Amino acid sequence: MELLLGEDWTVEPAGGTTGEAYIAWTGEQKLFLKRNSSPFLAVLSAEGIVPKLLWTKRLENGDVITAQRWVHGRELSASDMERSDVARLLSKIHSSSELLDMFKRIGNEPLTPSTMIENLNTRMLETGTSYSLFHEAIQYLVSSYQEVKAPSMVVCHCDINHNNWMINSHNELYLIDWDGATVADPAFDLGLLLYEYIPTDKWEAWLHHYGFPLTTNLKHRMHWYVVSHALDHALYYIHKGNEKQTLSWTEYLCQLLYGVKKE
After folding, report:
1. Nearest to 32 by CA among 41, 45, 23
2. CB of 111 within 8 A of CB of 184?
3. How far is CA 43 from CA 13, 18, 28, 49, 245, in A?
4. Sheet holding 73-75, edge to edge
5. pLDDT higher for 223 or 38?
6. The Aminoglycoside phosphotransferase domain covers which part of the protein (predicted)?
7. What is the mean pLDDT of residues 196-213?
8. How far apart are CA 234 and CA 224, in angstroms?
9. Which residues are tagged catalytic?
């Protein structure tokens, strides 16, 4: 990476799960570099959703390195997620026809409820789990999935954790880490965000800033996606052998289905 920039630059890993991100600096200049980042980073940059894309270079081995302007700011805290500008930026993302067109051009297949059920059933078989709660969750998803019809499919980030939201010193907000994004029901993102961060009595006010009313249909769709997400994570941590996280996600799944923790 130093050879790409020049000998005056210092490059260090930026952390993260993929190990493909780096911080580079020389003097007063500082860059965020990433190997093989999202192919629609340019569109995200142009719309002001991520920090400005400065350049893209292809290496001899075929890898693509992108450089973005370094953000002098901070990650949002969990309590920050109630901010109205979070709702407005997510609405901007979900409303972006440019992002949606880009996804269609690269052949992205929409993530539908039937596909999600199929994937979860496969994961159940792979883990070999016989835990009744998981089968009850699948039964709930199957029995109600035909009612989960999105009025439109949009580009969803799919990982709206507060650590992926950044705000700079000029109060400009960004949503980063787009590696898991896909086309789906906007209720996917909305459900994960509202259930995790926003008290139920504030959902309507938050959605007012997003630009959509809290309808019975939206409530139903959000709950469906949050249940599927919880089951997916429980199965993931079973596969990883992480008992603590498995228990945590299993208890959450039980709360979603029955309103209580399962002993």
Report:
1. 23
2. yes
3. 25, 22, 27, 9, 36
4. 73-75, 165-168, 173-175
5. 223
6. 13-211
7. 98
8. 16
9. 159
Q: Are residues 11 and 63 in the same domain?
A: yes
**What pLDDT band is residue 160 in, cutting at 50, 70 and 90?**
very high
Q: Is the dihedral of CA 142, 220, 179, 104 positive or negative?
A: positive
**Please, what is the average pLDDT of the chain?**
91
Query: How many Å apart are CA 19 and CA 108, to the nearest integer?
Result: 24
Using left for φ > 0, alpha for ψ between -120 and 50, and beta otherwise, residue 89 falls in alpha
Domain that holds residue 33: 2-70
pLDDT at 261: 43
Report yes or no on 150 lying in a domain.
yes
**Position 16 pLDDT exceeds 80:** no
**Do 22 and 82 have their domain in common?**
no
What confidence score (pLDDT) does residue 92 get? 97
Q: For the chain, first and last CA: distance in Å?
A: 51
CB of 198 closer than 8 Å to CB of 79: no
pTM: 0.89
Q: Are residues 83 and 205 in the same domain?
A: yes
